[in-house]
């Protein structure tokens, strides 16, 4: 037994590359393409600019579960009292930045990097009601929207009222993934409450939190339950796209970024389009964060500065993925030709995006709405 | 019981010739023997030897799993810093249907897995045509090697309404597009579990069946018993323990799989693991998640206890 | 068709045909996705085939091959350690009158019976405290805690299925207990033990969450990639990765079977 232990420890030594100061570890939530983005594009670019460094990336999986795993990893190292954490940069969903800041896991670095001033959007300062100003730089902004196949649905629903109408006329042709399978379904539900809740939607997005607000949603949930009878429930964010791709549903809410990757992977018909219904659906940014106990803070800051530079945002985020940039649009637009820039807005115009692209409710409302859904719609 | 005594008869060993274990320490001498030094018997209490043999395995599980588990489980009884069963109340309030659903799905899958693996194992052991046996042996094991998350993916695109299976049937003219239905609900979960886990139990079972004494089977065959009877009356009783162990391990595995319910079943109710993931990822609510985990653990323990009690009885015989 | 056609092949053929469809239908789906470039409704089969996703999986910075190597290395160590612990434990649980036998077996079941999600934070914390994080040993230990469930339970079943008489017979011929165990008990239990070796190997080879918490970023295995691709609905990458993982699984199975056969044969020869 002992020799085995020794052998494996030895092997561990052989297998792990020795930790040099110039090794930068990036943890990223999200799909495989996020891993590829760092591995194939950002990593080599950074290594070229900083000779002797090496970037390695670990994908933690898509959706909230992926960000949750990063948060738990930080918690474990915090509780264990580790001095130097084993991650230098992390890419996480908006929802998880708040808890990370509150537990003091993160470094306030935005003012230290040159690109810090290129972000003025509100969602880089407040994440679901928590002040995260200075701790984050957005990698890209994502939005949920309805995906549809124009061949099957020539006139897609353009508002929540029209969605209800559509589902009545075409039973089971509208599909969404409930709330347990990922945030695109959650976003659809939040949009429903913004549209039909009897309270003030602005209050849900900006606070302050008032537990009595919940009773204003009862009617909205009753109608959502009624609506869901005419709809199809899909298994997860990917499940909605999956059923769209096989023509089993005709319309469904999806993340815009996932929609484009599925198209790029040949899993969706190329003629599929998007529409953002009024009065709006939530979107969220993915943020770059740097752990306060990163072993390579300076390098990490340099990395994020590169990743949020106008050139990389233009080339890497807009051109490569067709995603909405993280930093303010005008800085990115200047680095792109007109055609590429306009491709971003093929289906959803900048005006629509500005008008109907909403933030998620602040964290306590978020939980309250989800739990109310569980009680009133899911059961 | 029949089979057991038969075995003995065939061997020509009457059970009365065997050393009977005394009631306090079975086969005390065997193990003392193995430790004898220089011909002098060194009597070590049998309990201690047994414990020493089990200790390393137990230590790993206790230190590396049960200790961290306990520190997280205590959270299940903690609401706002005070001892409370609030998390359990909430778990039952919100997810009692899901608990029932989980239990039904897993029990149903276990029953089907048991049935199919007996059929496969039985044919592998008793099949008369070597070529058919070889073909079956080659076919049945493949799903074993596919990770659950991929099982979820390939069955999702296979069993869907416009999935590959229905499409093949439609192309072959076996059904019309209108009659195509999706299996992506509770049936999909059962299919996924049975597909993935049957080879697991069948492999164990056919291994156990292969090591039983062929002479009883031959004897029964010479007496004209048909194969089904041999399977049920002679083979199965001898591999009952292995079958039960295989099914319990399957049960446990299915109870803790997350990807299959997430990827295949969209409807509510869903399985306990999906709710645990949701409690953690959506609310960071470890309290209810741990309560659900404990409930799931209790379900499995109850099933495992059935087996343990039975083997205990055999032990004390 | 000769007159001696075996009519039993008709029911046999139908039964095997149905089974083959049930098993290989979904697997064909997997294989198709590995070479799919474009596939969507209403097309029954892929519109375009190609290997561009293979290039993605095997891109030099993706480290797929070295991750596969690590995966296999970890799985092998896990099997050795698990069986090394499980054989004595299983024997004791099957043969010796242990107090709290039921409880011990239940305890060993817990790592699999309690869905792990809420426990990983604490597991990771403990591994960080012991400095096991980021080491192969750490990952192996995590896999062993899960593998032991299979290994010990199956070993216990395998040992208790053996007629005591056989052991006694060997001993009455003067063999020592250890010798009797080695020559008689172990070979009879071998099919069960080796089957458990296969399950432990597969369990380790397919595991990702524990590996992420304890191994990554220093130790990366192929299932980490598989998980990200699979959960995100990237069918091609997930299918290709699963196909790659099939190779060591089947190779291991093959080795075990060879070993098993020669062992059983040698027993018959005596």
Brief summary of the model shown:
With 379 residues, chain A is of the alpha/beta class. Chain A has helices spanning 2-15, 32-49, 63-80, 94-102, 160-169, 183-196, 201-206, 218-230, 236-245, 256-264, 297-307, 310-321, 329-333, 338-343, 350-356, 363-378; strands at 23-28, 54-59, 89-93, 126-127, 130-131, 137-148, 175-176, 232-233, 251-255, 273-275, 281-289, 324-325, 357-358. Chain A has two domains: 2-141 and 284-345, Periplasmic binding protein-like II (D-Maltodextrin-Binding Protein, domain 2), CATH 3.40.190; 142-283 and 355-378, D-Maltodextrin-Binding Protein, domain 2.
> What class, by secondary structure content of chain B?
mainly alpha
The portion of residues assigned to helices of chain C is over 70%
| Tally of strands of chain B | 2
Query: Strand fraction band of chain C?
Result: under 5%
- Multimeric organization: heterotrimer
State the fourth-level CATH superfamily of the largest domain in chain B. MetI-like
Domain tally of chain B: 2
CATH class designation of the largest domain in chain C:
Mainly Alpha
Largest sheet of chain B: 2 strands, antiparallel
Q: Main β-sheet of chain C: number of strands, strand sense, barrel status?
A: 2 strands, antiparallel
Remind me, CATH topology of the largest domain in chain C? MetI-like fold
What is the CATH first-level class name of the largest domain in chain B? Mainly Alpha
Radius of gyration of chain B: 25 Å
- Total DSSP helices of chain B: 13
The H/E string of chain B reads: HHHEEHHHHHHHHHH
Q: Strand order within the widest sheet of chain C?
A: 1-2
């Amino acid at each position: 037994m002992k020799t085995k232990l020794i052998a494996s420890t030895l092997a561990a030594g052989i297998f792990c590359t020795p930790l040099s100061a110039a090794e930068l570890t990036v943890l990223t939530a999200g799909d495989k393409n996020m891993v590829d983005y760092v591995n194939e594009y950002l990593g080599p670019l950074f290594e070229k600019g900083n000779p002797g460094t090496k970037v390695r990336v670990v994908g933690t999986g898509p959706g909230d579960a992926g960000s949750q795993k990063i948060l738990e990893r930080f918690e474990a190292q915090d509780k264990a009292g580790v001095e130097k954490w084993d991650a230098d940069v992390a890419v996480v969903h908006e929802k998880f930045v708040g808890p990370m800041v509150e537990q003091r896991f993160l470094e306030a670095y935005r003012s230290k990097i040159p690109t810090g001033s290129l972000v003025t959007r509100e969602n880089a300062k407040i994440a679901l009601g928590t002040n995260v100003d200075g701790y984050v730089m957005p990698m890209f902004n994502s939005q949920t929207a309805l995906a549809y196949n124009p061949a099957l649905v020539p006139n897609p629903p353009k508002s929540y009222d029209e969605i209800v109408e559509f589902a009545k006329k075409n039973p089971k042709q509208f599909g969404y993934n409930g709330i347990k399978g990922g945030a695109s379904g959650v976003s659809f539900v939040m949009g429903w409450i913004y549209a039909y809740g009897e309270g003030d939607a602005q209050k849900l997005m900006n606070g302050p939190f008032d537990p009595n607000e919940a009773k204003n949603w009862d009617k909205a949930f009753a109608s959502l339950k009624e609506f869901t009878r005419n709809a199809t429930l899909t298994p997860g964010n990917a499940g909605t796209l999956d059923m769209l791709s096989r023509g089993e549903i005709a319309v469904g809410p999806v993340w815009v970024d996932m929609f484009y990757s599925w198209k790029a992977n040949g899993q969706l018909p190329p003629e599929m389009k998007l529409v953002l219904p009024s009065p709006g659906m939530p979107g969220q940014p993915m943020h770059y964060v740097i752990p306060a106990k990163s072993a390579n803070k300076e390098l990490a800051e340099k990395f994020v500065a590169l990743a949020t530079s106008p050139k990389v945002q233009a080339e890497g985020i807009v051109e490569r993925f067709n995603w909405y940039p993280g930093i303010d649009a005008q800085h990115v637009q200047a680095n792109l030709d007109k055609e590429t820039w306009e491709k971003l807005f093929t289906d959803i115009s900048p005006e629509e995006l500005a008008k109907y692209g909403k933030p998620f409710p602040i964290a306590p409302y978020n939980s309250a709405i989800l739990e109310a859904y569980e009680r009133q719609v899911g059961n | 019981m029949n089979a057991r005594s038969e075995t003995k008869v065939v061997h020509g060993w009457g059970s009365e010739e065997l050393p009977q274990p005394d009631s306090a320490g079975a086969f005390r001498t065997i193990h003392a023997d193995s430790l004898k030094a220089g011909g002098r018997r060194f009597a070590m209490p049998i309990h201690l030897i047994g414990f020493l043999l089990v200790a390393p395995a137990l230590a790993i599980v206790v230190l590396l799993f049960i200790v961290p588990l306990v520190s997280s489980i205590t959270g299940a009884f903690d609401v706002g810093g005070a001892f409370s069963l609030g998390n359990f109340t909430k778990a039952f309030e919100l997810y009692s249907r899901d608990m029932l659903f989980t239990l039904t799905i897993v029990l149903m899958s276990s029953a089907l897995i048991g049935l199919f693996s007996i059929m496969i194992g039985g044919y592998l052991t008793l099949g008369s045509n070597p070529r058919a046996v070889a073909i079956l042996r080659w076919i049945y094991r493949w799903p074993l090697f596919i990770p659950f998350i991929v099982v979820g993916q390939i069955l999702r695109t296979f069993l869907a309404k416009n999935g590959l299976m229905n499409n093949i049937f439609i192309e072959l003219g076996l059904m019309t597009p209108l009659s195509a239905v999706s299996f992506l609900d509770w049936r999909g979960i059962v299919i996924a579990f049975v597909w993935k886990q049957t080879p697991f139990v069948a492999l164990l079972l056919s291994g156990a069946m292969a090591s039983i004494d062929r002479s009883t089977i031959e004897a029964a065959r010479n007496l004209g018993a048909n194969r089904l009877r041999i399977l049920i009356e002679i083979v199965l009783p001898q591999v009952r323990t292995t079958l039960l162990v295989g099914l319990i391990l399957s049960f446990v595995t299915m109870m803790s799989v997350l990807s299959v319910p997430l990827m295949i079943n969209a409807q509510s109710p869903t399985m306990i693991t999906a709710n645990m993931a949701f409690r953690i990822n959506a609310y960071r609510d470890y309290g209810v998640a741990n309560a659900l985990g404990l409930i799931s653990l209790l379900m499995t323990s109850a099933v495992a206890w059935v087996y343990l009690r039975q083997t205990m009885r055999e032990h004390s015989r | 068709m000769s007159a001696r056609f075996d009519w039993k092949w008709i029911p046999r053929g139908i039964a095997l045909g149905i089974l083959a469809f049930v098993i290989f239908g979904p697997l064909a789906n997997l294989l198709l996705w590995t070479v799919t470039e474009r596939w969507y409704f209403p097309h029954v089969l892929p519109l375009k085939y190609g290997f561009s996703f293979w290039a993605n999986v095997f891109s030099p910075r993706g480290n797929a091959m070295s991750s596969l190597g690590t995966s296999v290395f970890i799985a092998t160590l896990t099997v050795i350690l698990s069986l090394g612990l499980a054989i004595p434990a299983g024997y004791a649980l099957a043969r010796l009158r242990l107090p709290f036998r039921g409880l011990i077996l239940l305890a060993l079941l817990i790592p699999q019976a309690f869905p792990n999600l809420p426990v990983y934070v604490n597991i990771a914390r403990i591994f960080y405290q012991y400095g096991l994080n980021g080491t192969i040993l750490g990952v192996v230990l995590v896999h062993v805690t899960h593998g032991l469930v299979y290994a010990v339970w199956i070993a216990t079943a395998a040992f208790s299925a053996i007629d005591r008489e056989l052991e006694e017979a060997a001993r009455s011929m003067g063999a020592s207990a250890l010798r009797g165990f080695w020559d008689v008990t172990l070979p009879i239990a071998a099919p069960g033990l080796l089957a458990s070796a296969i399950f432990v190997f597969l369990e380790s080879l397919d595991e990702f969450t524990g590996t992420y918490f304890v191994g990554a970023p220093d130790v990366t295995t192929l299932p980490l990639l598989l998980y990200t691709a699979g959960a995100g609905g990237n069918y091609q990458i997930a299918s290709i990765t699963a196909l790659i993982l099939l190779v060591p699984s089947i190779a291991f199975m093959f080795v075990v079977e060879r070993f098993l056969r020669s062992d059983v044969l040698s027993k018959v020869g005596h």
